[in-house]
Amino acid sequence: DVVMTQSPLSLPVTPGQPASISCRSSQSLVHSDGSTYLYWFQQRPGQSPRRLIDKVSNRGSGVPDRFSGSGSGTDFTLKLSRVEAEDVGVYYCMQGTQWPPTFGQGTKVEIK
Amino acid sequence: EVHLVESGGGLVQPGGSLRLSCAASGFSFGIYWMAWVRQAPGKGLEWVANINQDGSQKYHVASVEGRFTVSRDNAKNSLDLQMNSLRDEDSGVYYCVRDAGWYNCDCWGQGSLVTVSS
Fold first, then answer.
1. Rounded to an integer, what distance in angstroms lies between the CA atom of residue A44 and that of residue A87?
2. What is the pLDDT at residue A105?
């Protein structure tokens, strides 16, 4: 299985400041069809996960533009340009290039 | 608006069985792959199984293969997960998920809690 490794696992942030989460895969996530099936999810406390980003950098419907995704191959990043209080929660990357789909361990974002 | 509502969770003894259901509404259920993703208490997310649009293709991760079976009824807009020979490590919240293609989990239910304990 493809192993997804996130860092940091805990991220204290100051409101209004930027934040960044790294996700690395044990194998390239470039599919034979040329696409890279890398997703980012947000799970607020007590809620179900919510998709933020699909295929590395496509923001989902209703996702604020302060969230952005980038990367290629085995290295990916989720960036928040200005953290807001509502961004508190756990963030997961997930690969869908190879079966079975696998998730990173999660990065807990909290306000300082 | 898309709604996915899970039911059927509860407390079961090791070795027992449970059947989860997911009622879907607000979209054309029959044109989507569907999936189950679980989350152990205080832990991360784990893919469990998925099924194609007409139910002819079913995939289960190794840890549940031979014990769990995913199925669907497009006439009833429902997705099921039959869980047999349950183990302590199967405990957690089970989410019903819409797959928009290539495991693109664009909609999640609220989850159903399964507790396996003696």
1. 8
2. 98
Q: Please write down the HEC assignment for all residues of B16-35.
A: CCEEEEEEEECCCHHHCEEE
The CB density around residue B99, as the number of other CB atoms within 10 Å, is 20
Q: What is the total residue count of chain A?
A: 112
Identity of the residue in A50, A60, A101 whose CB atom sits nearest the CB atom of B47: A101
Look-up: residue for tokens 């290539």? B102
Burial call A48-79: b when 16+ CB within 10 Å, e when fewer: bbbbbbbbbbebbeebeeebbbebeebebbbe
Tens of pLDDT, residues B13-68: 999 999 999 999 999 999 999 999 999 999 999 999 999 999 999 999 999 999 99
Q: Does A71 touch chain B (CB under 8 A)?
A: no
